[in-house]
Specification:
The protein is mainly alpha-helical. The chain is built from four helices and no strands. Residues about 115 have low confidence and may be disordered.
């Protein structure tokens, strides 16, 4: 997921958020399409639980992980103001790892027989 670092270098934190959202939305779109459900483009993990695709614990995990990405992006903005380049790089790595966790869960769901019917 070098794409997060590349996004930061090309467009700062707004571009990082776009890349994160695009990665998640594209998978959600495929999950919903595979289940024959219209997707409105909103990142909402609790809806996956409401529809029975994941359990509540998984939904909470995905929500918390996504929220921690949003918080890390805010941290980067603060670190930039302080000139903390090394900490920015470390935080970008954390964002990448958290995004990979979300993508992993959604990819498993996307390929599960529950969704593809």
């Amino acid at each position: 997921m070098y794409i997060v670092v590349k996004a930061y270098r090309e467009g700062g934190t707004p571009q990082v958020l776009r890349v994160v959202e695009d990665a998640i939305v594209s998978r959600l779109r495929r999950i919903y399409a595979g289940a024959g459900i219209e997707f409105n483009g909103e990142i909402c993990f609790s809806k996956l639980a409401d529809l029975g695709f994941i359990d509540e614990d998984t939904a909470v995990y995905l929500i918390a992980t996504y929220m921690s990405i949003e918080q890390a992006v805010k941290e980067i903005e603060e670190l930039e103001e302080l000139g903390e380049r090394v900490k920015v790089e470390k935080t970008l790595e954390e964002i990448t790892n958290k995004l990979l966790e979300i993508v992993h869960v959604l990819s498993q769901l996307e390929s599960s027989s529950l969704v593809i019917q």
